[in-house]
Sequence to fold (296 residues):
Amino acid sequence: MFHGSMVALVTPMREDGAVDDDSLEALIEFHVAEGTDAIVAVGTTGESATIDEKEHCALLRRIVEQANGRLPVIAGTGANSTQEAIDLTRCGMQAGADACLLVTPYYNKPTQEGLYQHYKAVADAVPVPQILYNVPGRTACDLLPETVQRLAPICNIVGIKEATGDLVRGRQILETCGDQLDLYSGDDATAMELILLGAKGDISVTANVAPRAMHEMCAAALAGDRVQAEQIDQRLRVLHEDLFIESSPIPVKWALHEMGLIPPGLRLPLTPLACQYHQRVRDALRQAGVVQTADA
Fold:
């Protein structure tokens, strides 16, 4: 249903933590111009954990309106409360999002049966296309392939973002239910290999700062051109690593501020990138060919 480089968009904030609407609009225009294939709005990288429900829905409406059909918008609407996930997913649908991305319920550590019932309840309640999202390193909850296989026949569950970085896991999902739902990487470092295996794209942090290169890498991998994909990915590898030198989105928001694209704001409990990492991220931007970066 979706393909290519799908940016896990940051939410630009001023130093007081307020959302910066002007920078948000400019970021969307940046991604349209640079060839990003879809926007994933108000997900983990968009600091969804510290954005309340009213603000969340308003952001989704604003992003859909600004995108104006020029590229798909996938709304991050997951929560660890099933009812809250239903409410947010309904907001995403009403805002006009093309699909919703739902992270596994975090902290409360449901069983596999609980995960199945959670996703089934959201899918039954809201008819918008939905993408499962598995990132156990953040949620302490792992959506296992056999549960994905149980969920795959539900008609409006159309994909899964698999962020374990485990290519064996990815291959298993492709083999068991790849004909029923699309697989997307949620791990930039292994995205190329997963796409070459059969995934449809990458929901990417790196695409925030290198959208054109990520689009081109994903396009090459989707076309089966390993040589071209590897050539681009090799240049981006330093970003895949250093944009996670502290918890995301701390480094990527610092990088975007360094590029002059957003203000420096984050919301507590996230804090600005530690000073000792500034030069390392600057160097990563330069090595990856991100020309907007300032000189040291």
User: Anything to note?
Assistant: Strands lie at 4-8, 38-41, 73-76, 99-103, 130-134, 157-162, 182-185, 201-204. The radius of gyration is 18 Å. The longest strand covers residues 157-162.
